[in-house]
């Protein structure tokens, strides 16, 4: 079995694209939730707020030929992937095209505009003309495919389209491919573009926040006064490599991936189960050969939905007891769906390097039904720990848990990607 390390990092979020920028805005108490005036045109849509990225532009060197198969979600993914490859020092490296490098990446769906166009074309083809690229932009594996084509990767491709665990499964499956010697390196992560239909879906499930008059005060994960989640968008990418390969090319190393656990509830499509969430965390610990006491912080999924918050925190408390520090970044960034597992892994590694762990935004009074944990509130917390766990849970009862340790050997760095 191979040891797996993180040699490149990149993310695109509503609060910035670097650790320093995102953490600075979190320290200042900023959140990304905004009123969405363009959604006023949907009278059936009750949530009128989201956490959009307002400053993303297609890179100037992306030609029309390159981007004709990319909707916004693929543009976010490919941009993040290219930045991560450059951060890893692999841009232009022949290693990428020799078959030893692959991609494991996902999103909940493809681009919503193209999905809508395709649906309208079925009813009135003349009013909604489509072409082959329409499908390439809307297909669920559009992120993984476009990354592979753009970077010229010739290794294995693992598309992960599993809602809120798309990004974390991408990282986990990439880790396993390298650990078992099937690949030398992998581009891993997830992305999601903002779409009103996402908010509508959660509203039909009574899981979306409706605090339209006070968007700056929602979502409120784990809080007794929460009323649901807020959708967001973004992309996150990790470059994973086997340790020997990274050391041989004298790569900068951020962290080691120590463990991954995943399973499914096998019971209900939308109702989470704390029993199997707990198993996923224990699977990650067993894979890492660690005890719960070895984990210094847990980055929670924390969507601000009633059933999800309660089940997750009860499971976490069963594994770790009441004293492990826990927070979620979804109060700051919204729920980025297929991107959240990757963005949160990126931030969790950043926390290891910055030694600062953000609070759960808007958390004032922990719901008494939530599990007993050390919830980080207020202005965040300075912590001296070297190992963290990042958890995500998705519709379908899909559970994931990742464990990262700050790298302190050859190639160690504290530079910000």
Summary, kept brief:
The chain has 13 helices and 15 strands. It has 417 residues and is α/β, with parallel strands linked by helices.
Describe, in plain words, how this protein is organized in 3D:
The protein is of the alpha/beta class and 417 residues long. The protein has a single domain (4-396), classed as Peroxisomal Thiolase, Chain A, domain 1, CATH 3.40.47.10. Helices cover 33% and strands 19% of the residues. The strands form 3 sheets. An 11-stranded mixed beta sheet has the order 5-4-6-7-1-8-15-14-9-10-12, sandwiched between helices. A two-stranded antiparallel sheet has the order 2-3. A two-stranded antiparallel ribbon has the order 11-13. Helix 3 (72-87) packs across helix 6 (142-151) and helix 10 packs across helix 11. The longest helix is centred in the first third of the chain and has 16 residues, at 72-87. It is globular, with a radius of gyration of 20 Å. The model has no long low-confidence stretch (mean pLDDT 96).
């Amino acid at each position: 079995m191979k040891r797996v390390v993180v040699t490149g990092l990149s993310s695109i979020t509503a609060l910035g694209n670097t650790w320093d920028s995102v953490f600075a805005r979190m320290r200042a108490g900023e959140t990304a939730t905004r009123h969405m005036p363009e959604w006023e045109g949907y009278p059936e849509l009750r949530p009128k707020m989201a956490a959009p990225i307002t400053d993303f532009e297609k890179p100037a060197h992306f030609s029309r030929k390159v981007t004709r198969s990319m909707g916004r979600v693929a543009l976010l993914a490919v941009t993040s992937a290219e930045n991560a490859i450059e951060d890893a020092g692999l841009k232009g490296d022949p290693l990428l095209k020799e078959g030893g490098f692959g991609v494991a990446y996902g999103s909940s769906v493809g681009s919503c505009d193209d999905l809508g166009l395709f649906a309208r074309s079925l009813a009135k083809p003349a009013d909604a003309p489509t072409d082959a690229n329409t499908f390439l932009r809307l297909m669920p594996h559009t992120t993984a495919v476009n990354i592979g084509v753009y970077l010229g990767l010739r290794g294995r491709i693992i598309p992960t389209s599993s809602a809120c665990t798309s990004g974390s499964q991408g990282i986990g499956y990439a880790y396993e491919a390298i650990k078992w010697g099937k690949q030398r390196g992998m581009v891993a992560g997830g992305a999601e573009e903002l779409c009103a239909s996402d908010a509508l879906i959660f509203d039909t499930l009574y899981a979306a926040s409706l605090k339209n008059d006070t968007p700056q005060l929602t979502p409120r994960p784990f809080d007794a006064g929460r009323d649901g989640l807020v959708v967001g968008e973004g992309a996150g990418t990790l470059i994973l490599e086997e340790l020997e390969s990274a050391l041989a090319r004298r790569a900068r190393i951020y962290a080691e991936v120590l463990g991954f656990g995943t399973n499914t509830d096998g019971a209900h499509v939308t109702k989470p189960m704390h029993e199997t969430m707990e198993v996923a965390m224990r699977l990650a610990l067993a894979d890492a050969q660690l005890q719960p006491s070895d984990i210094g912080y847990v980055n929670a999924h924390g969507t601000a939905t009633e059933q999800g918050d309660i089940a997750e925190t009860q499971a976490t408390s069963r594994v770790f007891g009441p004293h492990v520090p826990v927070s979620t970044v979804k109060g700051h960034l919204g729920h980025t769906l297929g991107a959240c597992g990757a963005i949160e892994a990126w931030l969790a590694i950043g926390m290891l390097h910055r030694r600062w762990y953000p609070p759960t935004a808007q958390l004032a009074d922990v719901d008494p039904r939530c599990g007993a944990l050390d919830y980080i509130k207020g202005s965040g917390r300075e912590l001296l720990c070297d190992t963290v766990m990042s958890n995500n849970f998705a519709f379908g009862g899909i559970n994931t848990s990742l464990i990262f340790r700050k790298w302190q050997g050859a190639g160690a760095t504290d530079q910000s990607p």
